Amino acid sequence: MMDSSLKKQLFSLLSLLLILLLSGQRERVQAEAVQPTKKLFVFGDSYADTGNIRKSLSNSWKDPYGITFPGKPAGRFSDGRVLTDYIAKYLGVKTPVPYRVRKLMPKQVKYGMNFAVGGTGVFDTSTPGPNMTTQIQLFQQLIHDGIYTASDLTNSVALVSVAGNDYSHHLATHASPQGLPLFVASVVNQTSMNLMRIKELGVKKIIVGGLQPLGCLPQVTALSSFQQCNASSNTLVALHNNLLNQAVTKLNQSWSSSFAVLDLYNSFMSVLNHPTTHNIQNQLRPCCVGVNRNYSCGSVDQNNVKMYRVCDDPKSAFFWDLVHPTQAGWHAVYNKLRTMNALEAIQF
């Protein structure tokens, strides 16, 4: 039998352990209340879209898109993860739910939301989707409806992707490229206004993608059998990025370093110029292509026979299709951005 003094000691020890356990739980709850979940809000185009574009409009909902992640087509313009996924990873949050399916995934709303739609631009393009102004209005409506509170937004980051759809649409609808410099200025000016609007809605940190080297996209390098980038296309990119950096510098003078430019040009070029450093063998040749010019990645004929080819190892290719990186490509760019300290601006 246990004597009474030993019983008292054990009872005291158990009581102390219970008090410590309860206080630990209380401190954890208090810590969670002090540090609410970070939120990521995403605006833009196919470099950031994780499932908003309508299935009827895009091959991104068809095989072989998504073969690496999540293992089936899910609306991402890649074989797997895209820029949004890696920015979410950096912030330590789950990839935000696409606006289109927000009501089907209500528990995911607390991590933020993705409004980006493939093919869209700062202005209207040939893709029938919401331009960036409209995407921001959808965000504003959710705030108005109380889905996100002011305190939610003080712990939030916005990713804004402007990957060049405005320029491809402009070149397709204008006979001469003469007015292009003026159009570049208008795209950057509208982007700046969009960034300011997102900030005015209460988002704490905003990171906007600089333009990637358009002259290195496979749809351009196909003319050289995927051997070299087009210098004149990249001159346009340099103009856009110079104006964007100036605009963001000006915004930061008013908003105390709330904005940053994600240097996609130099991060892309670093990987493309030193592919083996990132285990990339094919830096300009896309992994997935149509069997001829009439078809593209994901195309099928009238008998549902696939009319595309996929490389043996998507992990060794930088580009997935004629425009978009593979998951391996995005991962290499993400790693380069980290070594460039380009993402530190969105830490808080």
Automatic annotation (TrEMBL):
Presence of the UniProt keyword Signal in the record: yes
Signal peptide as annotated in the record: 1-31
Keywords tagged on the record: Hydrolase, Lipid degradation, Lipid metabolism, Signal
Superkingdom, natural source: Eukaryota
InterPro entries in the cross-refs: GDSL, SGNH_hydro_sf, SGNH_plant_lipase-like
A Pfam family matched in the record: Lipase_GDSL
Keyword presence, Lipid metabolism: yes
Similarity comment: family membership: Belongs to the 'GDSL' lipolytic enzyme family.
PANTHER family documented for this protein: GDSL ESTERASE_LIPASE, OSJNBB0059K02.9 PROTEIN
This protein's name: GDSL esterase/lipase
